[in-house]
Amino acid sequence: MEILEQRILKDGAVKEGGILKVDSFLNHQCDIQLYNEMGKAFFAHFKDRHITKILTIEASGIGIACIAAQYFDCPVVFAKKAKSLNLDGSLYTASVHSYTYDREYTITVSAKFITREDTVLLIDDFLANGQAMLGLIDIVKKAGASLAGVGIAIEKGFQSGGETIRSMGIDLYSLAIIDEMRPGYIKFRK
Amino acid sequence: MEILEQRILKDGAVKEGGILKVDSFLNHQCDIQLYNEMGKAFFAHFKDRHITKILTIEASGIGIACIAAQYFDCPVVFAKKAKSLNLDGSLYTASVHSYTYDREYTITVSAKFITREDTVLLIDDFLANGQAMLGLIDIVKKAGASLAGVGIAIEKGFQSGGETIRSMGIDLYSLAIIDEMRPGYIKFRK
Questions:
Q1: A53: pLDDT confidence band, cut at 50, 70 and 90?
Q2: Rg of chain B over CA atoms, in angstroms?
Q3: What is the pLDDT of residue B85?
Q4: Do A24 and B85 touch (CB under 8 A)?
Q5: Which domains does chain A have, with CATH numbers?
Q6: d(Cα B20, Cα B7) in Å, to the nearest integer?
Q7: How many CB pairs under 8 A join A and B?
């Protein structure tokens, strides 16, 4: 997606340690006009899949998912990372390993919000090693729902998540795929 | 706001311990059409205040803030609860006490996203004792920005947050204020 790639080049920054800072428009400050363009792009790709729910994970995925949901005219469900006092009843959980923080955490979705009648689109801001997304895929499977595909803003194509998910036969649509980056240099996949 | 109150009566549930469950439309599953009606209501109230930024806090505030921001045509910034590796540079922080989890946590906003040129609207899903909102107000002050007001979906009017914030002279606009609730009974402020 040209405008996202241009924005990454203009306002993004590659830091040591494989960190891409896009906090001025994507995951700390949120450019809502850009989010709308991203939502339109997700809709253009997935519009014939009869999506009934968008599932994302707190926190950075929520805004992108909510704006995108306006095009799909469906609700958003966001998986919770922390055990919440407000979560009760039947729950789906998945264990996720965070490489960034080197720890395991559990993501949780109330069973009543993803059912076997649902066709689910998964959305998140970043895909790197794919651990969080594999957790969401696991929850969709546990719910017996249909998985329409995965929409990602920025995929780090040099990490394994994209290949893992595509090799599962899942329609993974990333708006920008970075194949190579270092401070001062970003190369997108054609 | 009539449709929010009706929705709380229809799909909300009061649990023991002062918990109002509205997870089917507000803070786990998100009804984006309702979010849009809430965004319009916030805009109707604050539209003449020349808002340049909406500031919220992860996670449940983000979706509501992003949808509302479409009416104000401004970016959203969300305060982070966890220390993130991606946060660097100058930061504003505030300490927040969570009564729900009985612990202190720190909320953080990059200084570059809230400046003295900004007029900030604070948005969140719930206001109870107001601790998280007081943390956001503290960050707006530290940034030297103007505070236009606070927009809340559901205020628990029987807890102290609303009175605290209004007594500071801040324009607090809550779409639904609950003055009394117990299992099976919810009374809204007129």
A1: very high
A2: 16
A3: 62
A4: no
A5: 2-188 (3.40.50.2020)
A6: 13
A7: 122
Place of tokens 């509501």: B64
Interface test with B, best of A7, A16, A27, A30 (most B CBs within 10 A): A30
Asked if the peptide bond before residue B59 counts as cis, ω within 30 degrees of 0, the response is yes
pLDDT tens across A145-170, in order?
A: 999 999 999 999 999 999 999 999 99
pLDDT of residue A98: 86
Q: Which two tokens stand for residue B71?
A: 């009416």
Alpha helices in A12-130 (DSSP H): 32-46, 60-72
Q: How many residues does chain B have?
A: 190
pLDDT of B119: 98
> Which residues does chain A have within 8 Å of residue B99's beta carbon, measured at their own beta carbons?
none
Q: Which residues of chain A lie closer than 8 angstroms to B35, CB-CB?
A: 66
Is residue B96 predicted with pLDDT exceeding 70?
yes
The DSSP bridge partners found for residue A151 are: A123, A173
User: Mean per-residue pLDDT for B6-19?
Assistant: 94
pLDDT class for B146, splitting at 50, 70, 90? very high
Please count the residues of chain A.
190
**Least CB-CB distance to A66: which of B35, B73, B85?**
B35
pLDDT band at A140 (very low <50, low <70, confident <90, very high): very high
Contacts of A7 in chain B (CB under 8 A): none
